[in-house]
Amino acid sequence: MSSTTFEIEKLYIEFFNRPAETAGLQYWTTQVNNGMTIAQVAHSMEVSPEYQAAFTQTWTSGVPASVDHAFMNMFDRHATAAELSNWGVKFYGALVEHTSTADVIMQIGDAATGADLQHLMQKVTNALPAQLVGVQTHEVYDAAIA
Q1: Measured distance CA(51)–CA(126) in Å, rounded
Q2: Which of 83, 46, 50 is closest to 64 using CA atoms?
């Protein structure tokens, strides 16, 4: 299993709270192998109807719900008031500046520590196709929580 597969599955958990379907995983892996970055994959996913249904696209409403939705996707818990404030400001800023809200969602996942990080990494590991789970998966997981 490559770290690319792990990172793509992580995006699916962060954005959609589900494993990648086989065709989607193959498609995005091919795109990355042909030079696309994980951030570019995330930006492409951001325009999907599934992403837009989950995360607000307007700065006038829905920012706290979008941040909380990301926390539920990744950590299976609601964001605290402090987290809603901190990440809400960043999400709101992305909307106002017309930059990527997907970047903010990825930053939430990348900033995870402790039990949240372990939970997210376990969700991603569980989402990996069964034929890919093995020693290499655990090496990526162990490196992520180290």
Answers
A1: 21
A2: 83
